[in-house]
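Help! Submission page says 'invalid entity' but I think these are all valid:
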Amino acid sequence: MKDDAKSRKDALRDHLRESILTLRLQPGADLDEVYLSDAFGLSRTPLREVFRQMAGEGYLDLRTNRSARVSEMSYTTLRDFFLAAPMIYGAILRLAAQNATRAQIDDLKDAQQVFKHALRSGSGEDRALANNRFHDVTGEMSGNVYLLPSFNRLLIDHARIGMTFYRPQTAKMPENLSEASRQHDAIIAAIEAGDEAAAAQLAEDHWNLSRDQIEMFVMPAALDVPLGAAPNLKPA
Amino acid sequence: MKDDAKSRKDALRDHLRESILTLRLQPGADLDEVYLSDAFGLSRTPLREVFRQMAGEGYLDLRTNRSARVSEMSYTTLRDFFLAAPMIYGAILRLAAQNATRAQIDDLKDAQQVFKHALRSGSGEDRALANNRFHDVTGEMSGNVYLLPSFNRLLIDHARIGMTFYRPQTAKMPENLSEASRQHDAIIAAIEAGDEAAAAQLAEDHWNLSRDQIEMFVMPAALDVPLGAAPNLKPA
DNA sequence: AAAATACAATTTGTATACAAAAAAGAATCG
DNA sequence: CGATTCTTTTTTGTATACAAATTGTATTTT
């Protein structure tokens, strides 16, 4: 177990990545250079290099003479997200079905095992990270350097959107999640069979499910309370 | 005219960017930190931050304990390029037609003027940079943060591919270039009219033209020399 | 003479010191 | 009081010094 500067940089990167994907660090949050360099045993020089790299990947925003921030999310980005995601992910899964290696398919199955476990017993954070890992592997499978920059950018906000909207407040949530899990299984099968068309279709289905969940959250069923009655806000 | 550290960083960035896009710095070329920091009046710390950022954008490859390199291009990437480019660029132009502002359309027209001028009297480098600028503006118009990472990555290699394959060796080259220029005009018209479908179609046409040029370069017409005769390699 | 090793020179990575800019707080004026 | 200016404190940016790793060269060994 090495503990050199490089592995401490990796530790910082992983920490920031997980914190951002799980919303432990919220969009727009300021990062403290001296605190982080202290906490991870790095001087500010290598720390700032990590910032620059993660800014390029879409995790952070850098502004001159101001602190680094977790990249923002807005309602505009939500719209842009659902415009771009089906197309990019369709292409990614198509290429994955064409190019996936045996080892990558095994990785994907492992990731799905972890995801299923997170569904049963894990927290929302575990679920988001496991889901992120699953899709990340499909990106590796596609192996197209020109699609990956956008895809990886999408995965960041996919995790964050999931953390926002997949909360146990609607009755249909667990149902949606097991449907998502079934879709993962179908994606694995399509890739393993080299079935491009099926893979592309599954990509679209997967986004429609996400969009439904978000619609449910943004536009909940109206409260069933008679006019004039005081809604019981605090259930015993 | 300021000459502070920030503007020197910008100068370095622009220099590297132009050198890479025009192939003055070839794919795989090593970059000398001390030489560059000397030449641009920066210490190595800010210089390395520029490296990290440009690596994130796809201009450079960084390897630990080894010099930074101009990002590689291979025949694999050429294939990946033509798989991804029509889809991404189609989406970009579609969104550009939806969202372009008056000011952006003026920018695009300016860029096209510069491109036309480069066609007539400029060098191949001028042409590549002007073309890059044109497409860059269409990216701005689309305004979709999820598509731009891949699109910008594509534009880097688009310029480099153009520098490689658009050389004055085939008779059809000038013809192809004026066709490209006409397509630019048509793209401007489609965006100005808000005609999404036309814009998307033009994106596809534009890539087909590029692909034709490359095919012509990679698979030239066979030399018309009778069997047994010595081809005249050095024309008087 | 070729391969292997040891040593020197160069280059990359990190820490620290200092300069410059923002933010926060104190004093002044309306 | 509230807004504004000035001063102090904190934070960000850059330069430099040093440590670690890599590359190149000379020497030794077979």
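Support: the input was valid. A stray whitespace character was the problem, and the output above is from the cleaned input. The mean pLDDT of chain B is 91.
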